[in-house]
Specification:
By secondary structure, this protein is α/β, with parallel strands linked by helices. Helices cover 52% and strands 14% of the residues.
Length: 284
């Protein structure tokens, strides 16, 4: 399905590179059919060309007649300008995917030609090692065949979940921001390990393996997190003591609030983009 497709990334930052790396390593698309572009940073484009064997060209050099799939991977503040500049270059068979936080499918559709096929994508930073939890929400004109193409591409960087767009904010709160919560937890676990006499490298590896093991248990066992927690919690044992401390210090509530606040901020960003667009239309 993808062997003869040409994919272009508008924006050549770390997220674009993570996806390019995943696609190249999967051998799903030949490197010569992958394009990275930006406005004028030739050094960055040359770096990606050398590292992955892809083509690096500036935005003005793009030939959209040879491109099938376009990833919007620039800064979110540049999204509207980028979409409007694409409007005359695209035809309805082009598939536009956005990895930009807060940019809705309706926002993309409103800034592109009528009937344009778009998909909103939310990966996380674990895409750099092919372990992202990635959500996608297709626009109202996107065909099933193009949704499958998007799924296939995004599987190169991890697991893919198709969700309704009104669930994208809570997904962002859980998976988009989620790695940072675990790193924060690991920071505090590491501090405890160091204060207990373990060296830094050993402590870090112990924590990482513990988290990996717990995640694999969830993926490979049928039990819920609640059942798995209960299975390792003996009455009056060490785990019970640790969980009691978490409860007393608001650990569970803190996690829930972190997700809710991140989701609310995602919603705010989307609303700000929509309001800005409406004001600009009213000013015309």
């Amino acid at each position: 399905m993808l062997q003869n497709k040409t994919i272009a990334f508008l924006g050549a930052g770390s997220m674009a590179e993570a996806m390019i790396s995943g696609i190249v390593n999967s051998e799903l698309v030949a490197p010569e059919h992958i394009i990275a572009s930006n406005k004028s940073n030739h050094v960055r484009l040359t770096e990606l060309e050398t590292k992955y064997g892809i083509r690096g060209i500036t935005r003005d050099e793009l030939n959209f007649d040879e491109i099938d799939v376009i990833f919007l991977a620039m800064k979110p503040k540049d999204a509207e300008f980028a979409l409007l500049s694409l409007k005359e270059d695209l035809h309805q068979d082009h598939l536009v995917l956005s990895v930009l936080a807060g940019i809705s499918t309706s926002f993309m559709e409103n800034n592109l030609s009528a009937g344009q096929q778009v998909i909103r994508v939310m990966p996380n930073t674990s895409s750099m090692i092919g372990e992202s939890a990635t959500a996608l929400s297709p626009g109202k004109h996107t065909t099933q065949s193009n949704i499958k193409i998007a799924q296939e591409l995004l599987k190169c960087i991890g697991e893919v979940f198709i969700i309704e767009e009104d669930k994208m904010d809570i997904f962002t709160g859980i998976a988009g921001s989620g790695p940072a919560y675990f790193y924060y937890l690991m920071e505090h676990m590491e501090q405890a390990g160091l204060s207990g006499g373990l060296d830094e490298e050993t402590t870090r590896q112990i924590i990482a393996q513990t988290i990996v093991g717990a995640a694999r248990m969830i993926q490979e066992q049928d039990e819920t997190p609640t059942v798995l927690r209960e299975n390792v919690t003996s009455p009056n044992g060490t785990t019970a003591a640790g969980l009691d401390a978490l409860s007393k210090h608001g650990g569970g509530k803190a996690i829930s609030q972190a997700i809710k606040q991140a989701a609310n901020r995602s919603k705010e960003i989307s609303s700000q983009q929509e309001e800005k667009h409406i004001k600009q239309l009213q000013a015309i």
